[in-house]
Write a sequence for this structure.
């Protein structure tokens, strides 16, 4: 395939840049992971599909990938702008459970979604509470020059670093990182490095520190974990666009302070050479927010019968920097497209002959790869893949090309079957074996031109929620409704 350079959009410089690793032959990537106080919604998971494609492309280009995803189990407050209660403490109190049990449960749930979406596990998971001593040491290293102590804890003074808020392009006096007023703060955008436990209270997660007993700030955690595992500067820091406005500018300020660096005209001074952000998944029904109590989880899609890779394809159909609107119709269209791809691959398998030597060059995967190397343009890459699969010539070569190209997309096209993609709602009152047996009887009746029996079987299946799809060009045969 192509040897075109890899170009990525840097949110810090607001321009496409050719990727040049900090360490030759390596790619070191940090992705902001979940705060495990609740289940992830499908919008959250878009960020990890994006980061997975990035990692796959980097490896395809020949780099030794070290990818870190953190698990935040302490320090993230109910207001992302550094105010309110700790999210884990609040959920543990509501559920009357140990905070450790809450974190473990939702970590397991997140990792289950990662597996379901064929997202590869990172090189290392970093858990915030495993790094508290390092966080305290980091804070001590910057406290004298960049922080000040007030009753509620140790705060970072954003006026002590150059170009604070450049990532967010803050254009107000307070900046995009402004937070709720806190008594004693010097600047509105200053943020907590260490939060003291209020007098008379006891947290389930709290530690002794030079600034009193308490817990680290959310922003401190990512600076410490990325620096500890990847070293400063590393290559790429990823996250959702919501992190671009508050969390990541605060991370950058801490990194600048720790590394004793100057302004952000030199991107490496931020701690990472490139900052990348995926855009929002928009849900017009209003069920994307966890605060509503009922929100769109990947498990809900699965319970309604959709294969999770249909959602992965739905994400890939939009560029990661574009908003993507979720709808059930859109998910169904993605499932249909995925099934077309899988069926085309199955037909190639049927025609393939390992004894036949095909000395041909398949141009379209090369074109598709060029699109991926141009800031991960998955929508255009998928268009080229569709065009290649529409023709069944050169099956051996095409199967090999599909396998190599899909190693970057992660759709598992060589292993999925159309049966895998049938819609099977969890609440269905009939088993797949019962459906297949009824359809076999119906095919036998139709062969005998016994249309009365055929129609009766169809009506029986319809009553149980099975839609028999006679004449469907995709040959779905049936689906559960």
């Amino acid at each position: 395939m192509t040897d075109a350079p890899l170009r990525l959009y840097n949110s810090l410089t607001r321009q496409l840049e050719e990727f040049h690793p900090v360490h030759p032959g390596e790619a070191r990537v940090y992705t902001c992971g979940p705060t495990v106080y609740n289940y992830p919604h499908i919008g959250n998971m878009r960020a990890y599909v994006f980061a997975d494609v990035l990692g796959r492309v980097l490896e395809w280009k020949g780099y030794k990938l070290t990818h870190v995803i953190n698990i935040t189990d302490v320090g993230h407050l109910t207001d992302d702008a550094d105010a309110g209660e700790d999210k884990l403490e609040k959920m543990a109190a509501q559920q009357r459970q140990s905070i450790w049990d809450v974190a473990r449960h939702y970590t397991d749930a997140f990792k289950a979604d990662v597996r379901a979406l064929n997202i590869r596990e990172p090189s290392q998971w970093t858990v915030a509470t495993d790094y508290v001593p390092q966080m305290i040491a980091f804070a001590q290293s910057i406290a004298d020059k960049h922080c000040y102590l007030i009753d509620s804890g140790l705060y970072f003074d954003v006026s002590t670093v150059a170009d604070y808020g450049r990532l967010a392009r803050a254009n107000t006096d307070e900046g995009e990182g402004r937070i709720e007023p806190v008594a004693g703060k010097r600047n509105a955008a200053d943020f907590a490095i260490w939060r003291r436990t209020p007098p008379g209270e006891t947290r389930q997660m709290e530690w002794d520190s030079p600034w009193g007993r308490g817990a680290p700030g959310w922003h401190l955690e990512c600076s410490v974990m990325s620096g500890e595992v990847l070293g400063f500067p590393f290559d790429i820091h990823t996250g959702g666009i919501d992190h671009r406005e508050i969390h990541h500018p605060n991370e950058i300020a801490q990194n600048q302070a720790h590394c004793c660096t100057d302004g952000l005209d030199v991107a490496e001074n931020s701690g990472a050479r490139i900052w990348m952000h995926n855009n929002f998944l928009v849900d017009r029904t209003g069920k994307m927010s966890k605060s509503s109590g009922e929100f769109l989880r990947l498990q809900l899609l699965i319970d309604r019968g959709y294969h999770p890779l249909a959602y992965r394809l739905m994400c890939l159909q939009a560029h990661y920097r574009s908003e993507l609107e979720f709808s059930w119709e859109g998910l169904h269209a993605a499932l249909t497209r995925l099934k077309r791809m899988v069926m085309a691959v199955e037909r190639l398998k049927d025609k393939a002959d390992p004894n036949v030597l095909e000395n041909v060059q398949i141009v379209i995967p090369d074109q598709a790869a060029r699109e991926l190397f141009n800031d991960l343009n998955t929508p255009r890459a998928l268009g080229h893949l569709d065009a290649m699969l529409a023709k069944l010539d050169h099956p051996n070569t095409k199967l090999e090309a599909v396998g190599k190209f899909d190693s970057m997309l992660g759709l598992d096209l060589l292993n999925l079957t159309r049966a895998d993609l049938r819609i099977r709602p969890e609440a269905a009152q009939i088993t797949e074996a019962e459906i297949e047996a009824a359809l076999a009887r119906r095919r036998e009746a139709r062969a005998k031109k016994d249309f009365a029996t055929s129609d009766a079987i169809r009506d029986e299946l319809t009553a149980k929620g099975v839609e028999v799809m006679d004449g469907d060009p995709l040959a779905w045969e049936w689906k559960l409704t």
